[in-house]
Amino acid sequence: MKKIKIKSYHGAGWLAPILGDDFKKLKKYCEEWDETIEHFCPSANEMTYQEFIDGFDVFSWALDGEDYSLHSYRMLTDGLELFIDQDGSETLIPFDQCIINKSLITEDDFKKYKKDQLAEGEGRAYTFGYSSDEMLEVEFNIDDTIKFDPKKLVITIVENEMFDIVGPYITEIEYNGEYIMCDVEDFEGEYYSMNSFKLN
Prior knowledge:
By secondary structure, the chain is α+β, with helices and mostly antiparallel strands. Helices cover 18% and strands 40% of the residues.
């Protein structure tokens, strides 16, 4: 049995935009209660948001930004190690022997995505999430009838300007034309510093 093993830190992150009338309510609340709107994160203050936005649920709001965030649980590339395990014998796979596809997500990308809604007023987006305290190991079975070729291992890495605190992360891995990984399971970890930016 052949397995690809990956040892890495894991991260999760969400992007929750507050727009239009909801933003007006948020702005009014912050002015009345002397809160700094830039740091008034909906994740840490969800119950307060529910006082002035009907039906507010931070993860429901974050669905609006899922294509521009980590959204699911991702493997982070900082310190990541790749191995091929063949019958219990592990061999390190240098990153430069694999095919690496890189992409960049920026604040402007999200602003363009929300352009139509922003025509109705102001808005602000908040990012938040957590990362694992230690490196975790995941493994994926691959076809053991053919010789392993690292050039058939394709790793898609995203660098997200809105989540620069966690660094680049992996969104997909495929081997020999077949997907073997999209996301990983939940994990325990520490919340990292939230961030926010204006949407207009």
